[in-house]
Amino acid sequence: MRVLLVPNTANPRSIEAAQAAATWLAERGVEAVLEARDAEACGMPQRGMPRAEARQVDLAVALGGDGTMLKAVHTVGSPEVPLLGVNLGRLGFLSGAESGHLEQALEAALAGEARVERRGVLKASVVVGGREAGTFHALNEVFVGRSGGSRAVELEVAVNGVALWRFICDGVVLATPTGSTAYALSAGGPIVSPDVRGILIVPVAPHALSARPIVAGPSDVVEVSCPNSARSEACVTVDGDEIPCRRNLERVTVTSGSREAALLKIEGEDFYRVLASKLLER
């Protein structure tokens, strides 16, 4: 059996956890591997492998917060590989176990005793300068909007070919229900149970009184375009990683993708218990 360890290399606690997990797994005859750069940063270069090979694993373990969990999702890139998050960050909303239970969590995951939650993923097709720039997948969200020091952009948002808004804004967040507790929440969107399937459309700082968050259905097609070339300096960010935008963005088409992410939960807390303990004031 092969287990991919995905640390947050900027967090010393995460590096220590990766080293401890690798030792614990090796003692039980389980091969622990890391992506080459992570292995170097954790002082375990002998366990490193190229990203393409790192996807050929039986289990992935993210050692950090939600950002590290997203890193693991994109590193693995397969709905068949279960993902266990051990929270070593601030929030850890996607994590299945807390840092004090690392060994217990690993043991439960290897024994097949963890609960599997299948989370929907968005598919985004990007067109730049009249050409397809690529197709991307997001567990949390796709953001279309201004980047860095650029000025506000003008966007048009349509669902199933029906134009809903055209406004000057900072951008638009297109999120999964899983991502409803991330950027979309900060932008004023609703919290949605991950059992729901759909696409959250949340305008960010729109210069319009009529713009309100909308939850589109799982079969709907959402298109965000730049109708005004004078205000088309928009970029696309997928789960926090910006796609290079060297030319003017034309449009982004987002659907509920056929992929899913399999998140492991060890300690038995359901969505609402986690929501109450980690986000809502009591």
Q: Briefly, what CATH class of the largest domain?
A: Mainly Beta
| Class by alpha and beta content | alpha/beta
> How much helix is in the residues?
10-25%
* Number of helical elements: 7
Low-confidence stretches: none
The CATH level-2 architecture of the largest domain is identified as Sandwich
Morphology: globular
Q: Can you summarize the main beta sheet?
A: 12 strands, mixed
- The total domain count is 2
Instruction: State the CATH superfamily name of the largest domain.
Output: Probable inorganic polyphosphate/atp-NAD kinase, domain 2
Secondary structure tally: strands = 18
- How much of the sequence lies in strands comes to 35-45%
H/E topology pattern? EHEHEHEHEEHEEEEEEHEEEEEEH
Q: Using the coordinates shown, work out and report the CATH topology of the largest domain.
A: Tumour Suppressor Smad4
Distance between the termini: 43 Å
Radius of gyration: 20 Å
Summarize model confidence as the mean pLDDT: 92
